[in-house]
Write a structure and sequence with these properties.
GO terms for molecular function: 2-oxoglutarate-dependent dioxygenase activity; iron ion binding. Pfam families: PhyH. By secondary structure, the chain is α+β, with helices and mostly antiparallel strands. The chain contains seven helices and eleven strands. It has one domain: Jelly Rolls, CATH 2.60.120.620. The longest helix is centred in the first third of the chain and has 18 residues.
Length: 269
């Protein structure tokens, strides 16, 4: 089987405008069934092998009930490296952010087990020591995600709201951010994902997911991209300090995050 993950995905000006307005977008048929099956098998194998969660669901915190997660699988497998380094996804990230190139921040598999709980409302960039909002996450389901599996849901246009940016994922973030989103009247987009459908959301776009009420795991691979010229900022919290040390080792405050863990994955010709 021949797979070309560098083949561009056609993206129109209207879609870029929609992303700029809403802080997220869902794109259909980014991957086909064969591609997802091929890479999904290896991603699943590594997620099961490398995750360190041993407690039963009922004994875990809200955060730990949300999903099993393993980061930087690209360093563990040439097959996953092919997927994470593919120019199709990276090119979409660059186009949506309207930048000349993107670097890898890190990848992350997110497996919501059968019976797994909600993913509380949050904004990803709370965790990232970066100087601008030119960050984006590609959320790639490895199977279709019907409503009872807990698809990712977005508060459209919320990327401009300051309230809640200082809250890590928790029961408190779910309560406070959801209440604030409702007070602002933000539209909630909570819909199934078809097979091959991928979403992209900005680092400051608030989002959440429902529980997995199905009998199968909700298997998802994510890739987090940042502007090629992104600079490191002094951490605002202990989570950003930890991210600096883990995902940007050797980077210096005020300088471009150019480390072996943060390669450039796409540049415009």
């Amino acid at each position: 089987m021949t797979i070309d993950l560098d083949r561009p995905y056609p993206l129109g000006a209207r879609q870029i405008t929609d992303y700029r307005r809403d802080g997220f977008i869902k794109l259909k048929q980014v991957f086909d069934a064969d591609e997802l099956a091929h890479y999904g098998e290896e991603i699943t194998r590594l997620t099961i092998a490398l995750n360190t969660q041993t407690k039963p669901l009922e004994e875990r915190s809200t955060y730990d009930r949300a999903f099993l997660q393993v980061m930087n699988l690209w360093e563990e497998s040439d097959t996953v490296r092919e997927f994470v380094f593919g120019r199709r996804l990276a090119g979409l990230a660059a186009a949506l952010m309207e930048v000349d190139g993107v670097r890898l921040y890190h990848d992350q598999s997110l497996y919501k087990e059968p019976g797994g709980g909600i993913t509380p409302a949050h904004a990803d960039q709370y965790y990232w020591p970066v100087t601008s909002d030119r960050t984006i996450t590609a959320w790639v389901p490895l199977q279709a995600v019907p409503q009872d599996m807990g698809p990712l849901a977005f508060f459209a246009g919320s990327q401009h709201v300051e309230f809640g940016r200082d809250l890590e994922i928790s029961d408190e973030s779910e309560r406070a951010i959801t209440a604030n989103m409702q007070a602002h009247g933000f539209r909630v987009v909570d819909e199934p994902f078809a097979l091959g459908e991928v979403s992209f959301h900005s680092g400051w776009t608030f989002h959440r997911a429902g529980p997995n009420r199905s009998t199968k795991p909700r298997s998802v691979m994510t890739v987090i991209y940042m502007d090629r010229d992104m600079r490191l900022k002094a951490p605002d919290n202990h989570m950003q300090q930890a991210d600096w040390e883990r995902w940007c080792p050797g980077a210096r405050v005020g300088e471009v995050i150019d480390t072996p863990k943060n390669p450039v994955l796409f540049e415009r010709a």
